[in-house]
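call fold(seq) -> tokens
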Amino acid sequence: MQVYCWALSSLLFFLSCSSEVVAHEGRRHHRPAGGLRCRSTVVALIRVADLLRTEAFSGLPVAVCAFKNDEISPFRSFMEWWPGFREQGDRQLMQEFDFSRYPVFWHNTYSPLTAELSVWLRENAIREVLVTGVETSASVVMFSMQLFDIGVRPVVCFELVGDTYGDQGQKAGVSVLRKVLSEANIMAYSRLSSWAQSTDI
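ret:
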């Protein structure tokens, strides 16, 4: 699931699924398992929910993006573990963290940047987006680069992104984000409140 918190500006973003370690041809690797809960997902959602309750973020436009593994999702065609993705899990997490009160944008690919979301960005005059969420090594990287390409500044806070593939996935994603965004677009957690308050809504 993805959550965005905007301020002419900011987006908090989540795509989450749990993972399990499996053996394949003598190698150990991760693959998504049933359900959306894992440590990275829960920690990130708690931090975002807490952030949205603060005065600094209370006035920002907010939207939610959630993965929907529908009949035309490429995950069904190309991934053997596609049954692990469940729309219902995203709905439950949105309700649990009170995200269901915001506009929801469903997507069925790695990227949440759908046509509907692009329209929403334009209509709300979003010029800068704080991107957080899971997976750091996949959707967070892709979404940040797509925002960049359409002229919206992506900002990433590493304390607010996580990866269900563990430390290895997190480190890989962080390394790519530092390369493609540069340090100028990496936000320290301690600076989030002042950043939100300085945006021109």
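Residues 166-181 form the longest helix (16 residues).
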